[in-house]
């Protein structure tokens, strides 16, 4: 069998970087999209053989996975806002993961690497979470629940089939350069700052990670003999949005003033973006990536580089107009932002 890899959902933000990393390493790559006929969504990925396959249908999956040695299942619903009903996210996430796993098993695929999230790890825990922790579905929002239940379903599938190889990557908040002019990704927080759509910055914090490093983690989990049967958290220390804005302000004119929590909660009554921010005011994404570093040899680039590279790509591709240089812009980059717990 050739070193052919199927990456699901290749028009997505993370999946595109996974494909780029694999191509750079000499792998033959196939990709799935929900429907063919939109070449602009994959034009940045030349040389990828495309197949139409939807998470909510069995059609196309057998053809897409045939002859592949590995499968990286990165496709999953990622909402711009809260769905009307949680099943809009949970059902396609769980059913889609099982469709991919069944197709991989039938095709004799050597290993599947599944993209999950720290959303499947941290909910309901106050401790620093490791791969031994699982989110409590009863305390999850729809997105968190979709990631938790989809990953649990995948592990149950793998355990019921002796010899089936599964590894899982649990990334934090993914930032880093976009490859095409797309808006519905986790980089929207940076876009909002560059666009000047916020008078200040909510006092919320995330365990951030660079999309390029997450892509590398998927390949390492695919290649490493001991990765099967393991999940790997890939995320850094907590970084607050005010600290992130301060880094961006070394190059761009952006708001850096922290907004009081009461104001965020008040605006949240009428503004969807503020509603999302309000939900994170009391959340602390405390996780450790020690296992990925130790077992995969995985490393992270400085979050400062990630933030500035994200902004540069959004401006270069016209997702947001260049806000111009900050009055405080320096000729060199500042030190990496402090962990949120220290501010």
Structure overview:
This protein has 343 residues and is α/β, with parallel strands linked by helices. The protein has a domain at 4-177 and 209-234: NAD(P)-binding Rossmann-like Domain (Rossmann fold), CATH 3.40.50. The protein has helices spanning 13-24, 61-65, 87-107, 142-159, 188-195, 211-223, 241-248, 261-267, 272-279, 290-296, 303-316, and strands at residues 4-7, 28-33, 49-52, 70-73, 111-115, 166-171, 173-175, 201-202, 205-210, 231-234, 238-240, 258-259. A seven-stranded parallel beta sheet has the order 3-2-1-4-5-6-10, sandwiched between helices. The chain has a three-stranded mixed beta sheet with strand order 7-9-11. Strands 8-12 form a two-stranded parallel ribbon. Helix 1 packs across helix 6 (211-223), helix 3 (87-107) runs parallel beside helix 4 (142-159) and helix 8 crosses helix 9 (272-279). The longest helix is centred in the N-terminal third of the chain and has 21 residues, at 87-107.
């Amino acid at each position: 069998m050739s070193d052919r890899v199927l990456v699901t959902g290749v028009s997505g933000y993370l999946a595109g970087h996974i494909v780029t990393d694999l191509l750079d390493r000499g792998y033959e790559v196939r990709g799935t999209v929900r429907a063919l006929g939109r070449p602009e969504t994959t034009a940045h990925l030349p040389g990828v053989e495309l197949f139409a396959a939807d998470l909510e249908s069995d059609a196309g999956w057998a053809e897409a996975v045939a002859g592949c040695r590995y499968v990286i299942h990165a496709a999953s619903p990622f909402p711009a806002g809260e769905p009307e009903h949680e099943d809009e996210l949970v059902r396609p996430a769980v059913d889609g993961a099982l469709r991919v796993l069944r197709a991989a098993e039938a095709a004799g695929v050597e290993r599947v690497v599944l993209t999950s999230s720290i959303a499947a790890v941290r909910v309901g825990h106050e401790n620093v979470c490791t791969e031994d922790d699982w989110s409590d579905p009863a305390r999850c929002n729809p997105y968190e629940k979709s990631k938790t239940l989809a990953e649990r379903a995948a592990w149950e599938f793998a355990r019921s089939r002796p010899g089936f190889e599964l590894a899982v990557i649990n990334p934090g908040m993914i930032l880093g350069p976009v490859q095409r002019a797309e808006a519905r990704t986790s980089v929207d927080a940076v876009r909002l700052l560059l666009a000047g759509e916020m008078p200040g910055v909510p006092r919320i914090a995330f365990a951030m990670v660079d999309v390029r490093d997450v892509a590398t983690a998927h390949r390492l989990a695919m290649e490493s003999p001991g990765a099967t049967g393991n999940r790997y958290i890939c995320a850094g220390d907590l970084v607050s949005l005010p600290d992130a804005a301060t880094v961006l302000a070394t190059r761009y004119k952006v708001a850096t003033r922290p907004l009081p929590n009461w104001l965020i909660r008040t605006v949240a009554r009428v503004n969807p973006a503020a509603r999302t921010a309000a939900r994170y005011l009391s959340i602390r994404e405390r996780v450790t990536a020690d296992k990925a570093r130790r077992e995969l040899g995985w490393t992270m680039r400085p979050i400062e580089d990630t933030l500035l590279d994200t902004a540069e790509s959004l401006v270069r591709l016209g997702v947001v107009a260049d806000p111009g240089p900050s009055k405080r812009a320096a000729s060199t980059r500042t030190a990496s932002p402090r962990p949120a717990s220290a501010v």
